[in-house]
Amino acid sequence: MNFLIYGLQTWCHHQTVASNLPFISKILEKTVALQLRAHLSSNNIYEHFQSGFRPLRSTETALLKITNDLLLASDSGSLSILILLDLTAGFDTISHNILIHRLQTIGISHTPLSWFSSYLSDRSQFIHIKPHMSNTFTHSAGIPQGSVLGPLLFIIYILPLGSLFHKHNINFHCYADDTQLYISTKPSSSLPPSSLTLCLQEIHSWFSSNFLQLNSSKTEVLLVGTPSTISKSNSFSNSINDFSVLPSPQVKSLVSSSTAHFRSNLILITSPVLLTFISAIYLVSALLSHLIQLLYLFIVFLRLGSIIVIPSCLVCPIKLSKNCSFSKMLQPASSPGPRYPTTSHQFSKTYTGFP
């Protein structure tokens, strides 16, 4: 019993709760989101290196930007340090007061600001799992996941984060609540660079003051460069959120390995797809051969003009309903004329001769 409880707790810990919002609410949010995006674009408020949740910016733009920068640094003989930061339940810990202040700083005021304040306040939620339902509780923080405005408000919430990276001359790219930092240095220099260490300390302080928490277990560090460049570097570790992170040989997102190629990622993705494709080919070929045999037997039986018992091993395991056109073809015609267009009158007579 304790094992089942532990398993349920582990399962719940790894689940992301998405809000099931009313349809009318999403229509209203979409209208507001269109106006908010127009305001962010016309006033150049978007973080330039922010992909996701905005037009013409996706995982593709983030991947191309970071990979291109790392390959250029590698070609010049530099060693790059890539750090992938991940937040723990970033949408659920957003402070409403801080978010309202962020909206004020980007020019939202008066009636629109009051609308956002009303949108965030007095939200209640309950969890429904089949016949079980939890008690209703009120939200004092966070924005609903699964909403239209939620991702856009999260981008506005973390806008000041970009200034920290620019302050320490750290290259970065954000995608949703994931942040990738990278800096290039000479292989002979001490690792990690002091600017990177100071930047990570300020990031940790900024996250704490804004009620966001880094997920140390999902934070990864990768050294990127040529094999000769990496061999010249010294071993090091980064302290992130009081947690020591060592460089990994490969990471799950973006660049797959220290040589900035995607071979392991491609193998990881294509292997199950290839197996599924091969299984589908065998399945389709088996079904096609079975259907061809059944069609051949059907034509032969029509020509013979008599009923022959079909072996059960040749019958396709599909239940034909009365409304199925194929089952209607097997039924005798009620009129002396042919039910379907035929090229031979003899075929029509043979067909209507079914008892």
From TrEMBL:
Biased composition (Polar residues): 341-355
Superkingdom of the organism of origin: Eukaryota
Pfam families linked to this entry: RVT_1 (PF00078)
Transmembrane segments: 148-165, 266-288, 294-318
Keywords carried by this UniProt record: Membrane, Transmembrane, Transmembrane helix
Region (Disordered): 333-355
InterPro entries documented for this protein: DNA/RNA_pol_sf, RT_dom
Domain Reverse transcriptase: residue ranges: 1-240
PANTHER family xref list: REVERSE TRANSCRIPTASE DOMAIN-CONTAINING PROTEIN
Protein name: Reverse transcriptase domain-containing protein
Organism whose genome encodes this protein: Oryzias latipes (Japanese rice fish)
